[in-house]
User: What shape does this take?
Amino acid sequence: MPAMLELEPKVRAAIAKSRADYTEVRLEREWRTRVLFQKDRLENIEASTEVGGLVRCLVGGGWGIAVFNSLDELGKKVEEAYRVAKAVSPKISERSSLAPLDPVEDEVHARLARDFREIPLVKKKELVEHYNQIMLSVPKVVSTTTRYTDSFKEWLFANSEGTFIFEERPDITLVLAATAREGDNIQQAFESIGEAQGFELVEGLEEKAKEVADRAVALLSAKPVEGGQYTVILDQDLAGVFIHEAFGHLCEADFTYKNERMRELLQPGREFGVKELNIIEDGFLPGRRGNYRYDDEGVPRRRIYLIKNGVLQGLMHSRETAAKLGAEPTGNARAISYRFEPIVRMRNTYIDRGTASFEEMLRGIDHGIYAKSAFGGQTEFEQFTFSAAYAYEIEHGELGEMLRDVVLTGNVFETLKNIDMIGDDLQIRGGAGGCGKGGQSPLPVTDGAPHIRIQNVTIGGRARC
Amino acid sequence: MLEGLHGKVESAELYELKSWGALVQFRAGELESAKSVEQAGRALRLIRDGRLGYSTTTDLKDPEPLIENALASAEFGDPAPFRFAAKATPPQVECFDPEVERLGVERLIAMGEEIVDRIKAYNPDLNLMVSLSRGVEELLLQTTEGQELQERGTGLALSVMAQRTEEGDILIIYDDAASRTLKGVDHLQLADSLIERLRWCERLARVETKAMPVLFTPRGALVLLLPLVVGLSGKSVLLGVSPLAGKLGEQAFDPRLTLTDDGTVPFAPRSSRFDDEGVPTSRKVLIDRGKVGQFLYDLKTAGLAKTASTGNGFKGSLLGGRDFKNPPEVAPTTWTVAGGEKTFKELIAGLKEGLIVDQVIGLGQGNIASGEFSNNVAVGFYVRDGEVLGRVKNTMIAGNVYELLKGRLIELGREVEWAHGLFRAPAILVDGVGVASQ
Assistant: This one.
């Protein structure tokens, strides 16, 4: 029996004694290994363990939370969460409540093709060193980062409504990054992958490593982009990050449920884009990073349309936002770890496939940009910005020279409307990083899209001085 | 526990961090939750047969798995280029305020309510998120080289976010404050400064796409300072990715620019007597009147670079708090940029045309190693003929920090202010920043 399940009687007893209106206990036990090479050095190699838990109580509509590492006195922790909730409840006029949910009892075990817990640490080190060496041996590459992580979590959730769930949550990531340099010109390229899979995910990536190093070197002679307005084609990676950052976050109901004005902007039925635009938040694609059967409130995951035929359908919810807005919980309440309470987060967000081919998209672009892969992205509601890892000019319908320093920005409502073509080549993928929100980062997510074409995108660049 | 390792390893370091505290959160101007935190974890580094091993755990009762894991990782580790910290006399650094330790959840709630009331009196339609936290950290660090220390520090942190939502225009403004002492955080002043910025946002202005002077506020100066955090790290120098590598003593910046890293600033959020490797903290001049004065090192990086640790080895993220899980990395303590002559108001008054940048989105994305930045201006204002005309929207700024702070510095402001709990910076006025507007 997993070590975590031995705690079942203690967890049930602690919840049974709680004086709160609602009580939940979430416990985690994690085993992880990490290997990090930087340049020619093994920077870190470790095997570590971590145990911790969180109790959340609702008392008179106010939340009390207790976070801890020691599982010895669960009863006391429930009492502590109750005590701080009591300090909140007399101060509030608007009481929090939870949308109804049928109690669930379930046990979910991970199935890994090559269980990374059974791979000796030395094998992991050798593989990472091998990729690192491939990158480092490319001329002009001055530095590299090759980072491997794996984590296996036993996750246990129980609440005072009778829900009791045990779930195994595996996670494996690899980052390949190379820095090339010529004088003061320093350029970086990277690949990052992450899934809820076994060791097989990170094997056989020699070509990827070579590609990364070659790209860093190629970027040395790429042209810095000139700022301005362009017609832009985004590749699947970048379009996925775009839809996560720029649109996905807007559809997280915790931004709207206590904000009437935001609710008006995000009324279901509002038109957001062309008819071909469909955006899906997919609850559970097993094997995908962060795709587990239950969210951190014990709600089974669901597949929902955020946008169907260009029209907003609904939002992502926790039990609390669903109760307030009269919606159903969608299973999007997530926490990065036992240290945090669940908040509304994405899991697997993508633009569904359209019909255009890449060649059709290129046709008709006189002067544009093909932007590929994402360095990162950030959004503040309607404003978004994200940077392409690299890009190419498009001149008279054909791909031209390589470009760098391509940062795209704009207003999401306008930009979504400016998507005029959606490709037929949908790809969903998970990176090694993750999403950040409300001080909780990184949360494993996946996103995806086919190629998309957008008119009138603002590209920030060095102005000609 | 270190005694148990005697004879098995050449050298070892045990790090144990315990923390406890409280956090309250307001959403939409209403109290929502209170949280009580009690955490503890351990990290063990050791050197066996010259090789470095590392492991962490939350299990404080059974030392065996931690030792086994650390020994196993040492089997394949790289040769350790350093020894763990020896006994040393630390500077006196104030980091503990019993008033913060005693601060109850009720008092945090009351402070939050006062912030909300103050901002709501200015504009009741703003949607406000406020969080307030206080905590105590207790660090125990022992090395087989004879270092043995126990540190207690307090921390108090506030953050406020105001959102103004109108059809076609969503404005979000943040501010935060952090200190190890209660007196270091004035929650009403935080509210007032937020209101002042909100007043500037009442009007909109349009800016043309071209290169122009940009006045970074102390908060906005992070755009310029973040690439320097990377560039002045001894690690970046060692990896060959810092444009400042090999430029010690060279005039790489404008002679008016002086920057210090100081781990001893009283009650600063990142101050302590020792870093997370047991090395005493100190004050270092990183940029001395434009000349590169010093890079930052932790023990390992210093060992590889054949120099001494500067007391900048911390177990946390570059800009965030410490966490027992992370191996120590080179990280800044409090950074201070020396101020100039003119006040912020005088700098604005002297601007024929320019942009004030206070808050950006997309910080740190892109090629910051080479000093490039390209950010969306989240909170920024257009200035013409010395007058703030209003807030700009859909605007990007782009440039290279190393170029701007060398040949393009116009002026530094006189007022040096805390920003992001890490920097004390004046307003920085530079010329020739690329501005792209829709």
Notes: Chain B has a mean pLDDT of 95. Chain B has two domains: 9-68+78-200, 203-438. The domain at 9-68+78-200 of chain B is CATH 3.30.2290.10 (PmbA/TldD fold).
